[in-house]
Amino acid sequence: MRPIASRGCLFYGLGFFFGIPLLLALVGFLVIAGRERAAKRKLDDRLQKIVAQGLPVDNETMLSFTNSLTSKEDTKDWLAALGELTSEAFSKSTDGVPIFDPKATDELIVPAAGQTWSNEKVTRDFLTKWKDLFSRVSRLSLKQLEPGTKPVRFLKEFDSLNTLLPQTQNMRTAARLLLLNGQVAVFDRNSAKTRTNIEALLGCSRTVSGEPLLVSQLVCVSIEGMGVGLLRSALEQDVLSERDLMALLPRMLDGINISPQWKLAMQGERAMILPLFEHPELINPNLRWLPGRNTDSLHFLDLIDQVMEVPDTDLDGFRAGLAKVEQDFRRNFEGNLFQKFDSVVTTLTTPAVSSMGGAYIRDAMQRRAAAIAIGIRLYEKRNGRMPASLEDLKSLELGELKLNPAGLLPLGGKPFGYKVEDKQALLWGFDPNQASSTPAEPPSTADGSPNAIANKRWTWTLEKATSQ
Prior knowledge:
The chain is mostly helical. It contains 17 helices and three strands. It has a three-stranded antiparallel β-sheet with strand order 1-2-3. The chain is globular and about 75 Å long. The relative contact order is 0.08. Mean pLDDT is 88; it is low at 26-31.
């Protein structure tokens, strides 16, 4: 009988050893399954509410959403222009041309009038060769500034994060052509032509502003930056007339806050990422089956909601708000193993919102500096001298416009720096990645000094008019 008893004990032991874990696994599975079913109901409800607001949640709704924001009226003309800009003939003609050819010695900026410009002939020959193309690009870009004009429709389909954006990326080449023409206008001290190219760059940016994708919106910010950079060259060399300064001032004031395009980008990113929770293999082929993504989807929606709820009325609050969202996300979903599993796809796909938001902060700061610099030039033209301080700008008569430096602060709560010297006035800010507020003295721009390249971007050297 003992052997039978021993076998019984063995069976009881094996049952206990394997049965309890299996029971616990079953209970765990039922709990997770029930939790996922509840999450699925919540997810469906939230997605329905998003769609009811007219916002996208997947590839199909992204297409209809984008179509509602854009127009195909100029699509054919833009495609023809972009086709020429990407042609072999155009590419071969850019040898030695500033901006287009990295080997060109004057790659970034045309020298001031009267200075030696080694690439002047090749640049003018290039612009003459492509005069017709430039005219079409300029006309199409300027049209975007007309009231009621919608951005151009390029996209015909969406494939989540694999969506191709060839026209959007090629728009940078169109912008370079406008920028080069504008730099020649600065060199020639042609105020009207310079203003036209600045405005064309702003319009070129708006051409793809209807694409609710973070990549597209960052291209917009980049092209706007080219326009502000051209304006800076014109202001530093005192090229623009009072009339053209007055025309450009509202263009700059229009962008001194966080652009509403930021939220549009987040709405689009949300729709582009949501399909990945159901099809994680689109992220990585090894993730062909990843259970429990309904809860993950809800975490992602919560995160994007928090990002879009960050106040964008002031730059410091916007930056702090985005940083807090990211900090809270890391704390909540990088804790224990269960929490990590609940946010696998969210962790893999969430954009670096602080970094992306930083581009919008820098854009707003540059616009604020540009508006102040325009005010300095207007004050100089009307009073025969540079303002002694930025506070003097409040006395400018600008019609319906207002130029109050206190409302044009960069990050950190301190105003832009300003100093009048013998032959010039300096206006300076700071690189948000290197400092937290405006330094008391202009940052060093000497070659070889720390952060010299960044400091040059944030230091405006305004030459005094020769009559002073």
